[in-house]
Design a protein that fits this description.
6-stranded antiparallel β-sheet; alpha+beta
């Protein structure tokens, strides 16, 4: 389960396999109906104003009002309608109280000409707007595909583990950021990663892609978590060395590596300067932190032997929550941080999907839909052990 903010572009496949142009999102209903409301307002004003107050002149703006939400054909048709409607109001005694002679009055003729000019400009603007919307829809679609490659959906179940993920962008139009996660089944167990790249923009995205690529490759080969963290950091150092200036030293990532072996009820954790994972158990929520966090990736050379493995019990029914600091640093309008531990304790144990759905909703409510940072979360729950099935002949056997 991945959540994003903002609308996603729709994509269609032609029968021949070629891909059609992406469809821009539809404008809001009130904007589509704004031209009709505008005409109704003119009709309501016309009977209550004096004859020498030609309210119909405001119809000159109708094509521009239409251009906000409609295409060039509709704008051109609206222009023709506006000219005819102006003529109707100018020369119809029964409707406007004016004689037919007003129809060709120079003021009304000037209004007709202005309406045509404004309508021509509105048509050009509508053409430009629709082209930009289609381009933006194409860019959004490409960004969606890039995000699916970078942050592909985690498997919902691996063995006895139920998993799910959450991603929220602080920018409504953004699709990719510097937060990352991954979950991989390996011969050593299920290995999890969550990280937060320092900085924003394309550099952060490139760093996240490099880190995920290194993790996905090394997770299957490295025998333990310190070796895995060292492999990923070595890859980060190589790529950072290609940068010029101060970016080389500023390109670092906080991360947590976790491993849940298939043959044991425990979890191993290596923390590299990241918020500690949370263990959710019936009646208990606690941080898995023994104060032995390593420096962030790409800064590990600052200390000898930086990677320390901490092992914790992980019983059936327990749930592990990995998250980025965008969650705990989410503020409400008064400036108070989001109380993650309190919320989780009040909710009690929840399935991974329901937990992240509630967390998603609660974060938006707490911040009043004004997130200041990207957010990522990854959760894994060990299924409770099922009681052994009774013998075929009944619980006590079939003794006759």
């Amino acid at each position: 389960m991945r959540h994003g903010r903002g609308s996603h572009a729709d994509r269609f496949e032609s029968p021949a396999g070629s891909t059609a142009r992406t469809r821009p999102p539809a404008p809001p209903a009130w904007m589509r109906w704004l031209p009709v409301l505008y005409v109704i307002a003119v009709l309501l004003l016309e009977p209550i104003t004096p004859v020498d107050w030609p309210v119909s002149f405001v119809l000159i703006a109708l094509p521009l009002v239409t251009a906000f939400a409609h295409g060039p054909v509709t704008v051109a048709g609206t222009t023709v309608f506006a000219v005819l409607f102006e003529a109707l109001l100018a020369g119809t005694p029964c409707c406007a109280g004016r004689s037919v002679g007003y129809l060709w009055d120079r003021h009304y003729v000037a209004a007709y000409v202005c309406t045509v000019l404004v309508g021509s400009l509105g048509t050009i603007l509508a053409v430009h707007r629709t082209r930009r919307e289609r381009t933006l829809a194409d860019v959004r679609f490409v960004a969606d595909i890039a995000q699916r490659v970078l942050l592909r959906p985690v498997p919902h179940r691996i063995g006895d583990l139920l998993l799910d993920s959450l991603y929220l962008s602080a920018t409504a139009e953004a699709r990719i950021g510097g937060d990352l996660y991954e979950a991989l089944p390996t011969a050593h167990g299920v290995r999890l990663l969550i990280g937060d790249v320092r900085g924003k923009g394309l550099l952060a995205v490139e760093t996240a892609a490099a880190l995920l690529g290194a993790f996905r490759e090394a997770a299957h080969d490295e025998p333990d978590l310190p070796s895995l963290a060292h492999h990923v950091e070595t890859s980060m150092i190589r790529r950072a060395a290609q940068l010029a200036g101060s970016e080389k030293d500023e390109r670092f990532v906080t991360a947590v590596f976790a491993e849940i072996p298939a043959d044991g009820h425990h979890v191993r954790v290596v923390n590299c300067g990241h918020p500690p994972p949370l263990l959710i158990r019936t009646g208990e929520v606690r941080e898995l932190d023994r104060g032995r966090s390593a420096p962030p990736l790409n800064l590990g050379m600052l200390v000898p032997d930086p990677y320390q493995v901490d092992t914790y019990p992980f019983r059936p029914g327990d749930q592990l929550l990995l998250y980025t600091d965008g969650i705990t640093e989410t503020r409400d309008p008064a400036g108070s941080f989001y109380p993650l531990l309190e919320r989780l304790h009040s909710w009690g144990p929840l399935p991974p999907r329901e937990l992240l759905q509630r967390l998603h909703h609660d974060l938006l409510v707490h911040s009043q839909d004004r997130l200041q940072d990207d957010i990522a979360a990854l959760t894994a729950r060990l299924l409770p052990e099922e009681p052994p099935a009774p013998p075929a002949g009944g619980f006590y056997g079939d003794d006759g």
